[in-house]
Structures are given as structure tokens and as C-alpha cells.
Automatic annotation (TrEMBL), chains A, B:
Residues 1-24 are annotated as: Disordered. InterPro entries: MeTrfase_7, MeTrfase_capping, SAM-dependent_MTases_sf. Pfam families: Methyltransf_7. GO terms for biological process: methylation. Belongs to the methyltransferase superfamily. Type-7 methyltransferase family. Keywords: Magnesium, Metal-binding, Methyltransferase, Transferase. This is S-adenosylmethionine-dependent methyltransferase. One of its GO terms (molecular function) is methyltransferase activity. PANTHER family: S-ADENOSYL-L-METHIONINE:CARBOXYL METHYLTRANSFERASE FAMILY PROTEIN. The keyword Transferase applies.
């Protein structure tokens, strides 16, 4: 796992934990619920690997510690039960996956007591195999696939012409930077889709919620840009004031990428293993900027690893002041697009 | 789970952690390796639930945090692979089970990097269902089934004639105390075996390592007695010196039980779901008394819950002095018997 380990969400249930600061993710998940139910109802055929097995396996990839994952798993199970009312003897097994450094102890303590499934946790990167062949009926992943397996090397290399100096993401960067991110994303998705193709049963479904950008835009116009701009601005300020070294800033980048739906569909078609049952863009207006607490929950680990923990309080204090009074973001600028993608494993 | 939660082994990898203090368990597991290999070789028929599934599911119930569980899982997989060399396409999935309060984060961090299996963790008491029907091919449990799901009520009730006053276990206690423990054990094993019978495929194996006592002896002659006698003696000393209240001591008991093989076989036959493929008594001489560190790893949680954390350092310091210079225990007194039991799920 190595460098990936700094990417897990902040554990526990303290002030800055993911458990207490994942409202934007929850809102999007709520809005996806209707789509999820429709998806199951229209597309799911329960293909039993065996006439004697009545296990329905579900995985949530990049689940963090809850509560969002519990809500999503419940939605999926309700949808499956609704479609297969007659088959009252189905047993559900849910596999909660996240990186090894995720706080699974907290996840386990928070498991809903009256859940209708057998719970299991699977640690490891979803860019490799996590499950036996054809062992899952449904794969779900919500706002986790924006995390790349690693940064494209060149954007952090101070001696490369593609070094992404003075920025922390490819938004508003020269074309080469966006291309390096795109190439890393393509490589990662090939691994992701290849692994999932093996793990899903024939006819099994995979539902993905992904932050995306509008078709026809370049990566540099990424919808993620405005969300991370205030953080970038704080880091630049601190560098200008001599609190951080210029090299440290220049070599820091976020391993995050948001594709357009066309870009993603091409990558899916390339694998040849999935039918694309549905791709939808979810627009939204008046998205509040991420609060300081929400930012800490998602980014504390990666910032600490690069800059050291001593800058954290100062940085997030500045962040908090920087966003104070700013208006919410709007989708008319290509911001805040989420992609809902439903794939079906070919027979 | 409730009261059971205090029973998990001490987590992390600090001085008193189970990870660093589980040598006696490891020695016994090493000695069981040969038996395990023989057991698989003579008794395992791979009954695929489905012609398309090549997953071989293994569970370790009461796994703690490693490293012993990793060694045991490796032994089982080697034995299965050895028997089924021709079927090189088997994929193994290992489910590590322990109570919700077990330190699964530590378990995950310590997973062997070159393991030949997909790893998953399943939290919860093994006295209830943990897995879907017929989803496992092999169930293993090593030195975990001595933990009862709860204490028999009467032995802690200061007003009951069966109250186990002045002792912390049924060893050397009046007959009624041993009977109350036996009855609780029978109730627990009925639940354990009933759940496992559903989870194992037909023809699947279950290998159990259990601390036992010699056939024909009463519970009061339990082989566990001498192991816990020094701890009991320290608690009695502290009560006599006024450091603990007499009621606290009188109402404290360990939820631990060791059956004879005859007793266990009767309980297994009663369920009607398993063929007993093998029962062996493993004797051993010169068993070192548990060290202070080993004791803390196993019992710190339960002692803290009953007496409060403030007594821990004093108690274990006394324990350390109490056992200093004592000779190791010998099996000729019925001490240190371990039972190796191999069951096969009936078709």
C-alpha cells in the first residue's frame, strides 16, 4: 500500500473525524437512492452461482467508517428485497472495503444493530483484487474513485517541465499537467475495472458515484477546481510569508481526478467486460463550500504526510477564515457535477 | 454483545498486548499443525456449492490480532493445496472473526504481505450466526471456545447458595458451582454448533483446539485451576488487606470453562449435524506458568470491568512476585490437556 496509506479518512468520532463531517457525501447519497432503486429494479437478474446458495454478496468500496455506507447498504438491500419479494430466503453478506489504514474498529462499533446482513470488512486498495472470482452480486462505490492510486510522477518532479508548480491540482494548470492526471486515471481505472470484472458474477451490477466534469471540457476546467481553490490559496499565502518552502508547495499535489462521462465510458468500453446500463449527470446548485471540519476529515492525512503535522492548525485556521462569507458554488460553472454510473457484468 | 465486550484480548502491539504475549498459544498451535495436515488429508472432500465457484472459504473464530492466526491459516491452506494439487485454480478467502472490541486495525496492519488468500474480518460473537448458509469450507478455532458467552448467573449472586465466594473459577469449588458452569457451557455449545452447522457446506470440516480436562474428572478438578490459582491468591490477599471489598471478590468469576472430551462429544452428538472425525488429547509436561505479561494480554479487560482500572498495576505486580521461582505445571496432575477435535458436517 505504501504511500496510499495517508489517504484514508480521519478515523474515530472526534471533532474532525469523517464520521461527523460527511454531510455533503450524505446528501448526494440520498439523492442517489432513487436512482439506485430504479437501477436494481430494471437491471438486476439474480444469477445464482449455485442452486443451493442463496447468498447475495454486496461490496462497498471506499466505505470509510459510516454512517453513509450503512445507509447505502440498506438502500441496496431494500431494493433487492423489493424486486425479489418471493425469494424470502435470500441472505445478504456486505463487505465493507477501504484502505488498510481506515478505522475499521470504529466502523464495526457503529454497525447498525438491526442490520439485515452479515457484515465483513476487507482491507486494501480497490486498484487490485480484493475478492474471489464471481463472489459478488453487487458492487457499490460512492465518492471514492476520485482518489488516484498515486500521483503522476511528473507533476511532483521539480525538474520536469510538467511539474505542477504553485498549484495543488490540475485545475487551471498547463495542458501537460491535466494529461498526466488523465493518464494516471486511465491506468487506475483499467486496474479497477479489471479486478471488478473478475469479482462480479455474470449479470452482477456495479453502481458508481463519482465526482465528474462536464463533457467537452478539459481536465484543467475540472469541476473540482473551485472546491480546492481556497486551500491552494492558503498554502500559497503561507509560502509567500515564508512559513512553507517553495519546493514543498511546488511538489505537493492532490491525487484526485474527476473524469467526464465520455472519458469514463471510453475506459469502460475498453475493458470489454461491462454493459453500460446507465450514466447520469447529477447537477446541483448552491453547493456550500466544504467546511474546515469537512476538509480536515478528508485531507488531514495527506497534508500531514507532505508538510508535517505542525502546519495543520495554522493551515485550517486560515482556511476557515478564507471561506468565511463566500457564496456557495453553482453547477452552471461546471461545478459539483456527480456522475451516477451503472454497469452490468457481461455474461 | 454487551458484557462480552470486556473479553477481547488486549489490542495494539504494546508491552501488554496479545500480539506480543501469545507464546503458549503459539506452541500449542505448532503442535497442532501436524494434526491439521493429517486431518485435511484424510477427511476433506471439496464439495463445490457450484461448478463455477472455486472459492474455498475458511474462518478463524476468536482470531485475536495475530500472529498465531496467520500461521494457522497458512497451515490450513498448505494442507488443502497439498491434497488438491491438481486443482491449481482454487482461490482462498479467509474470514478473521473475533468480538467487536477486538483490535481489527492491528490485525489488518499485520496481515502477511505475501498471503495466498483474500482477507476479510467478521466482528461478532461466535455464539450466534456470523456467515451466510453453506458459505464456509473450513472452520477453525484455537483456544477461544473456553470463553463462555456469559457467566452462569448464580455463581455471582451473593444471595445464592451456589455463589462462588472467595474463588474466581469453579476449580476446587462445591459441586453446584461446577454444575452451573457446565450448564452454561452446554447452552453455549448448542448455540455455537447450531450456527456452524448452517454456515459449513456439506462435508466441510471444523477443527477446534480447546483447553480440556481429563475424562472421568469433575469440573472442580479442572485442569484450568492451577493456571488461575496464583491470580486468585493475589485477589484474596488484596481483599484480606482491605484493598478490595469482600463482595467484589465474591462476585467476581472468570467466564472460562474446559470440558472433558466425553462431555464435548455428547454435546456434539446431541446436535446431530456433525460426524466426529477425530478427538485427541494433547498432553504436555513442564508448562511454564503464564507470565505477568501473558496474563495482562488475556485478562486485563475483564478485571478492569469488574474491579476498576486502578487495581491493575498493583494486582499484576503482586502476580509477578507470586509466580517468581514457581516450577512449571505438569500434565500428570491433569493439567494442560488440550483437546483437538475434528468435525465433519454431515451431508
Amino acid at each position: 500500500m505504501g504511500g496510499e496509506e495517508s489517504l484514508a479518512m480521519t478515523g474515530g468520532d472526534g471533532q474532525y473525524s469523517y464520521a461527523r463531517n460527511s454531510n455533503p457525501q450524505k446528501e448526494a447519497a440520498d439523492r442517489a437512492k432513487a436512482m439506485l432503486i430504479g437501477a436494481v429494479s430494471e437491471n438486476l437478474d439474480i444469477v445464482h452461482g449455485s442452486p443451493t446458495s442463496n447468498t447475495f454478496g454486496i461490496a462497498d468500496l471506499g466505505c470509510s467508517v459510516g454512517p453513509n455506507t450503512f445507509i447505502a447498504m440498506n438502500n441496496i438491500i431494500e431494493a433487492v428485497e423489493h424486486k425479489y419479494q418471493a425469494q424470502g430466503h435470500l441472505e445478504f453478506q456486505v463487505f465493507f472495503n477501504d484502505r488498510v489504514s481506515n478505522d475499521f474498529n470504529t466502523l464495526f462499533i457503529n454497525l447498525p444493530p438491526n442490520r439485515k446482513y452479515f457484515a465483513a470488512a476487507v482491507p486494501g486498495s480497490f486498484y487490485g483484487r480484493l475478492f474471489p472470482k464471481a463472489s459478488l452480486n453487487f458492487i457499490f462505490s460512492s465518492f471514492a474513485l476520485q482518489w488516484l492510486s498515486k500521483l503522476p510522477q511528473v507533476v511532483c518532479d521539480l525538474n520536469s517541465p510538467s511539474c505542477n508548480k504553485g498549484r495543488i491540482l490540475y485545475a487551471n494548470a498547463p495542458k501537460e499537467v491535466g494529461e498526466a492526471y488523465s493518464a494516471q486515471y486511465a491506468e487506475d481505472m483499467e486496474k479497477f475495472l479489471g479486478a471488478r470484472a473478475q469479482e462480479l458474477v455474470s449479470g452482477g451490477l456495479m453502481a458508481l458515484l463519482i465526482p465528474g466534469r462536464v463533457n467537452g471540457t478539459l481536465p484543467a476546467q475540472s469541476s473540482l477546481g473551485p472546491r480546492f481553490q481556497p486551500l491552494e490559496s492558503c498554502l500559497v499565502d503561507m509560502t509567500n510569508e515564508g512559513l512553507l518552502s517553495k519546493d514543498k508547495l511546488d511538489s505537493f499535489n492532490l491525487p484526485i481526478y474527476s473524469p467526464s462521462s465520455e472519458e469514463l465510458e471510453k475506459l469502460i468500453e475498453k475493458t470489454g467486460c461491462f454493459d453500460i446500463a446507465r450514466v447520469e449527470e447529477m447537477h446541483r446548485n448552491n453547493i456550500p463550500l466544504l467546511t474546515m471540519q469537512e476538509f480536515r476529515a478528508g485531507l488531514e492525512g495527506i497534508i500531514k504526510t507532505h508538510f508535517g503535522s505542525e502546519i495543520l492548525d495554522e493551515l485550517f485556521d486560515r482556511y476557515s477564515k478564507k471561506i468565511a462569507g463566500r457564496p456557495p458554488l453553482n453547477t452552471c460553472g461546471g461545478i459539483g457535477i456527480a456522475l451516477f454510473v451503472l454497469l452490468k457484468r457481461k455474461h
